[in-house]
What does this fold into?
Amino acid sequence: MKAPLLSLSRLGEWAHLQAPEESTFTVDNPSDTVTLTKGERPTMKISTMMGYAGGFKQAARDVAEMEKAGLDLVWVAEAYGFDSPSLMGYLAALTERVEIGAAILPIYTRTPTLIAMTAAGLDALSDGRFHLGLGASGPQVIEGFHGVPYTDPLGRTREIVEICRNVWKREAPLVHQGKNFTLPLPADQGTGLGKPLKIIAHPQRAEIPVWIASLGEKNVQLTAEIADGWIPILFIPERANDVWGASLAAGKAKRDAQLGDLMITAGGLLAIGEVDDVVALRELQRPMVALYVGGMGARGKNFYNELAVRYGYEKEAAIIQDLYLAGKKREAEAAVPDEFLELTTLCGPMGYVKERVAAFRAAGVTHLQVHPLPQSGQSAASLIESLKTLL
It folds into this structure.
């Protein structure tokens, strides 16, 4: 069942509310409610994805200001733009406390040991503040831009995580026998001169947090089994359990207890203010949703389109994809349901945003991922500061 769209009249009610001492909200089924008081609330951190279309150096300075306001973690994307390790090294030099994460390093574009070395180097530069986010990306980028076959993403992910952790532990020279990677390389595949080695440098930490970006059932199950954290996208907290609950449970059943609880980073656009001023800002999400659901991948090979279908938007997902692939991007954007935009953002008066935060918390989110949209008299840093009071 789809979660109900929250009306503008209800938003008007929230505009006159202060953040409550106690929040009661519905999770998954209308009969299931959760009540949390301030003393019982699990700790939630604030994260953001760094956007640098206007220039990386200015974006980095903005992160430094948000750090002072309480930002806990900043993610840096790579896609097929600048390499993210260079940018994260710059961030490490400019900041002191905020944690810095790769979201994501593709699992096909570097050897497993280079991924491990890169993570160890960034962790050293940042004095133990680095998070390694891994993901498979997609065949259009991996095969089109990098010229590497997009094969066995699940198997590669598992092996890369295992190799990275062995490199960081530095307990013995590295030896690995797997379907995708064999270290050292067998003699019949090379010169025969390869030998097991340890990383020369001593990593700052033997356990660097590893996050995996995943959406599909098997990939999410793998994430819950082996990763420290999970990076979903287009996350609707009210429907997360219906879509991913079984996969998460299956993965956690095999999870090593020493990993602790699975961290989750999810959220959306953040705007706090009067209803008329901020609700319209959800529209900024519309082109991105249309791009992902309609054009990010070929027909039948679009993970985001499949996610929209699993959320209950089967008809809308088909229309968006048909329009987008036909070159009708504006029409595809118009076909994105308003409800989808609302449930994947945090835009409204303070009390309303408080309720959205509670919904994400109830869905297991540990790092509330926000993209601040400051209004008149606000800054990204001040929005982070306001959000911090709601956690």
Notes: The first strand starts at residue 22 and ends at 27. DSSP finds 16 helices and 14 strands in the chain.
